[in-house]
Amino acid sequence: MCLAVPGKILEIRDGAQATVDMMGATRDASVRLTPDAKVGDFVLVHAGFAIEVIDAEQARETIEVLRDLEELEAEELAGAGAMSATVPTGAEA
Q1: Can you tell me whether residue 8 is helix, strand or coil?
Q2: pLDDT at position 85, please?
Q3: CA atoms of 50 and 22, how far apart (whole Å)
Q4: Residues paired with 19 in a beta bridge
Q5: Virtual torsion, Cα 31, 37, 38, 43, nearest 10 deg
Q6: Which among 1, 8, 30, 70 is most buried, taking Cβ atoms within 10 Å?
Q7: CA 82 to chain centre
Q8: Is the separation of the CB atoms in 38 and 75 below 8 Å?
Q9: Nearest to residue 32, comparing CAs of 17, 54, 47?
Q10: pLDDT digit string (tens) for the chain, length 93 residues
């Protein structure tokens, strides 16, 4: 499964490399595939490349979904830890 994460372009250098804020972390990404992208635009970043310029609302909605997934994963991992803690070591199920 492939995942592209939305980010906001903070800076573009040499017309090809951008600094992008992705959910609070800054990363470098190539903007060669999105030549119309400019500082302030939101882009989807996959494998170090900005692959599409998106609007702010689409970026916000996608970030919200990603944060929800993070919360669900944390809850699932916490639940799995609680379940394994109730089975004594060496006990058969």
Answers
A1: strand
A2: 55
A3: 11
A4: 11, 28
A5: -80
A6: 8
A7: 28
A8: no
A9: 17
A10: 678 999 999 999 998 999 999 989 999 999 999 999 999 999 999 999 999 999 999 999 999 998 888 888 788 888 877 655 555 556 554
What letter would DSSP give residue 90? T
Do β-strands 42-46 and 49-54 pair in parallel, antiparallel, or remain unpaired? Answer: antiparallel
Residue 39's pLDDT is what? 98
Which two three-digit tokens encode residue 55? 């609007």
**Distance separating alpha carbons of residues 83 and 59, to the nearest angstrom:** 36
